[in-house]
Design brief:
This protein starts with 18 loop residues before the first helix and ends with a helix. With about 110 residues, the chain is mainly α. The chain has a domain at about 15-85. It is built from 2 helices and no strands. It comes from Anoplopoma fimbria (Sablefish). It is a single-pass type IV membrane protein; Single-pass membrane protein.
Length: about 110
């Protein structure tokens, strides 16, 4: 009995029909696909690791900003308390001192 594409005769003729060429090509493509899947797997693991690291950094930054915000809020509260009293002259001196320090630092950094 003859089958299309399988050559003449019995079971020993599969090699001459091109069947093994297709098998080899499929195995070659399978190996290429396996290599791509392995590369994608390692890439996704690396991305997951990087995401965890970035989330940890963001949580640390959030904690730092919260503590800084609390410190800044307390400082502003003290300045408001000073401005409410009759110590406006002292507040003006503090403001002038801060501006002086700012300009000295600016001048020092600019000379570098």
């Amino acid at each position: 009995m003859r089958r299309a594409g399988l050559g003449e005769g019995g079971p020993g003729n599969y090699v001459t029909s091109g069947y093994s060429v297709y098998e080899e090509e499929n195995e070659h493509l399978q190996e290429g696909l396996r290599a791509k899947v392995t590369a994608l797997k390692s890439l996704s693991i690396d991305i997951g690791t990087e995401v965890k690291y970035q989330n940890k950094m963001l949580d640390d930054m959030d904690t730092d900003f919260d503590s800084t915000g609390g410190l800044l809020g307390a400082t502003i509260g003290r300045v408001k308390q000073l401005s409410r009293g009759s110590q406006t002259k002292l507040l003006c001196y503090m403001l002038l001192f801060c501006l002086f320090v700012f300009f000295v630092l600016y001048w020092f950094i600019k000379l570098r």
